[in-house]
Structure formats: structure tokens, C-alpha cells
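Lab notebook, bench 4. We co-purified these components, and the gel suggests they stay together. Before we commit to crystallization screens, I want a quick structural picture of the whole thing.
Request: model the full complex, all chains together.
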Amino acid sequence: MNNALAVASVVVKELYRRKDFYVLFVLTAVITLLMGALNFFNDDKIVRYLKEICLLLIWISALVIAVGTSARQIPSERENRTVFPLLAKPITRGQLIAGKFLGCWLACGLALIVFYLFFGVISVSREHQLPMASYFQALWLHWWMLGVVVAMALLGSVLFAAPSSNATICLLLILGILLLGRHLNKVAVQLAEPMSTVVYVVYFAVPHLELFDVRDLVVHNWDPINWLICVGATFYAAAYAVFFLFAAWLVFRRQPLV
Amino acid sequence: MPAPSLILALLFVVCFTLATWLQPWHQSWAGGRAQSSSLLDIVMGDSQQLFANHFFTKADVYFHSGYYPSVFDQAIGGAPHMTAAKDAATEHGPEHAEETGFLGRPRDWIDRFSRNLYPSRHSHLDSPGEAREILPWLRIAADLDPHKVETYTVAAYWLRQHLNKVDEAEQFLRAGWRANPDSYEILFELGRVFDENRRDSQRARNVWELALRKWHERSARNGKQDDFILEQILTHLAQLEEREGYWEKAIAYLEKLKAFSPHPNVIQQHIEELKRKAVAPSVPNNSVSPQAGKR
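Here is the predicted assembly.
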């Protein structure tokens, strides 16, 4: 466990040394503030459009950070040949995968905290209320969703040759799931056999990342989600993250490093 | 093989010649957008209308607090009227609403579970002032497609009726009128601003009479009739004239309305009533027609 934590701490340090997070955060802040400066019919209490834009930017930035950071971890260790001294120390390949995952996931969590703090400030400045429970749930579910994404990208990094192709494939898959995942069962009932069964199998097999997208509830000030539902969603994400990490370990443990 | 510099010079000459031929053609091309004064026109072209429709729908999504059928839901069950689901929820409880709403019964455990994580109950922006949240999308829709008349009338309705922003409603309608000078819908809504909010009967009358003329002009031109708006214009004009005591004008509008109304008997009764008022000795003498011209 200590080995994995040591690897994770290096990954977290890498995040704040790189410029990705800062650039994305500044972009998010600037675009949100510019949109907030717009005047619609002399009404300064309009806030939901701003919350929606800010959350959309946060989701895009978080996905870019998560996929970008995780996809390059193992390939860059190989490319720089630092993977050899790393594995020469008493650290197994499984610990390396776990450490990389933990580091990327924690780094995403830190970035999310900063993003959601900004979102909270923007929201409070306009709405003069802070629904802490809803915002915490949104942050929590978002973070667990990123856990699945990070694990998926790590699996991709041992399957695909280049980080760029891995990142592109992962982002396409994630976007596909986010946009279509909820509706695949509706599409399946419209199709003839055997396509209907095929689509249904895909529907039940893919990780439903869209479950963790509670932006509409936050934007439109719906009541907080039942905490048991949150716990259920957390276990769902944890199961998929473990599955992807296990698959990554299975591939990586027998893979030649050169 | 000639020298590379000669090939380069030849290619340059060919490029220059093509440019001198293509540039005038592009300038005169009907599909060119370079002449447009608007940056949006140049950058987005006709796709603006597509986005305008999207943002107009977005306003409706906001009005229902995010509870809105996706394209997949609409493909399966059509686009049901939103109020149907709300009525079902209030009359028969949430279980019945679940069956009758566009979502229907959950198809599987993922479907059932996911409904806790997005807006899955019918809701409206009912609280005072909450309707303001739809306005940015309507404004953006109007900027992208200034010829979508519905955007102006819907925004003006919410501005003056629910948010007490009469000045903003009038300004927005006037902007819409400038972009759509033949729109009787915008003129009708502008008349309502003058009549119901400004209490300026004279201007309301002028605007509604102009709306009536525009309706006839467009009907004569296009052949198809928008009877609903005509009914609205005639009803409001008749009510205004009756309120002002110009019985004969009110009767004239009601006679026209009778031909389109689904309840001609009710209109006829009202006409009879007005006729009685017109001949009664206690009625003030308003036989002189109201002056037109105030705009």
C-alpha cells in the first residue's frame, strides 16, 4: 500500500507542476465571468444559464484532465525508461497500476474541489443561497465518475500504442456513453432481432457514466438526491473502476516493457 | 527536369491567375456571406436558425426545470403536451404520472435507478420571478434568428405578465417589429402591452388595427389563414371598443369574429346585448370615431 501511495504522490505532484489544470481553470473562469457579465432585460437575478455554462465547462475540463493525465502515465514511464528503476525497487506491477490510478484520481479530486469552489462562489454571488448538500453530491458523484474514466484510460494505456490514440478513443467512448447511454434501451426496443439483443447487451455492459451527471438537478435547484441512491451510485462506479484496473493489471503483468 | 525556381514561378503565376478569376466570382456568388454586416451571419450562416430553434427549445426545458423529452423519447411516444403529465400527477398521484408522462414505466433497473439522478417529475417555474430564467435563451434565440416571431411574443408575454418588465417587453417587441415589419403576431402582442399594461387605448387600437390589416395582407398573399390570431385580434378590438363605448365598432368586430368563432351563438347574444345598449337613452354619446394616428 505504501508503494502505491508513493507512486500516487508523484502523480499528484505532476498535476500541479503541469500547466493543463491552470489553463483549463483560467479558461473556465474567464468564460463564466464573461457570460455572467451579459445583461438580459436588465435582470441581474438570472443565474441558471450561468450555472449551466459553468458546470459544462467544469465537466469538459475535468474530463480532459482525467483522460490526459491517466493516458500518458505508463507510456511516459516506458518512453523515459524510468519504468525499469521503478520496477527494480520492491514494487509490483499491480502496485504500480494502483498507485498510478490513485494518483490520477486524487489529482482529479483536487482539481474538482477548486472548480466546484469557483462554481459555488459564482452561484452564491447571484442566488444568495448555497445548497451545500446538492453541491457536495454533485462533486462526489463527479469524482467517482472520474474514477471510472481514469481506470478506463489506464487500461487503454496498456492496450494502445500511443497516449494520443488512447486519449482520443477514451474521450470518444466517454462522450458516446454520456450522450447515448441513457437511451440505448429505448433504441433497442425499436430494433429488430438480433440487433435489439446486441444493443441491450451493450446497454447493460457499458459503465453508465451519465448516471453521475446530476447537473440538471443542480442547475434547476431540485432537492438533494436520496443519500442511499448516492451510496448505490458510488458502489456502481467502484465496481467498474476495479474491473478496469483488474483488466489493466492482467494485460500489464505479462506485457514486455520494451 | 526544369529548375525548381521555374516550377515555383509557374505555380505562382497559376495561383495568381486563379485568384483574379475566383475573387470576382466569389464576390458575386449568391451564397456568399462576405457582404453581410453581421459577424454572426458571416461565421454561422444559415446554421443560426438551427441554433435559434435549439435555444428556443432550451427556454422550454428551463420552464419545465429540466424535465423534457429527449429526441429518443419523442421518437417513441411523440411529443406529449406537458400539461397532460402535470394534470395526471395532481389528480392521480405520482405513480399515475409515471405511467402517463413521456418517460413511461421504467424499462429496467438502470432506468429506474437513473430517474433519481435527473429531473424525472413534471415541474414548472411557478414561483414569483422564477420565469426570468428562460429569458437568456429567448434573447440568444432572437439574436441568432431575428425572423422567428414566436421568440419575441413568448418573451414579451413572460416579461410583462409575470416579471412586470413592461418597458423591456415593449423594447423587445419593437426590435422584433423592426426585423419583421409584416408580423401581425408581434403587433397584436404590442397592442396588449399598450392596452393591458400602459392603459393606452388609443395606441392599442392603432396597433391592433394595423395587425388586422397585416393579417389580411398576408392571408391574401399566402392563401392560408391563421384564424386563431385573427380571433384574438378581433376579440381584443371588440372589447376595447365596447369598453370605450363605441358600440357600433364593437358590433362590427363581433360580426367579423362570429364567422371564425367556434361559439357563434355566444357572440350573437353579445351582439344583441350591445345593440340594446346602443339604442338605450342612458348611453353616453360616443358616436364620433376615435382619432387615429398616435403611434
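Chain A touches chain B through 37 residues (CB under 8 Å). Worth comparing against the SEC data before the next meeting. The CA atoms of residues 148 and 240 of chain A lie 6 Å apart.
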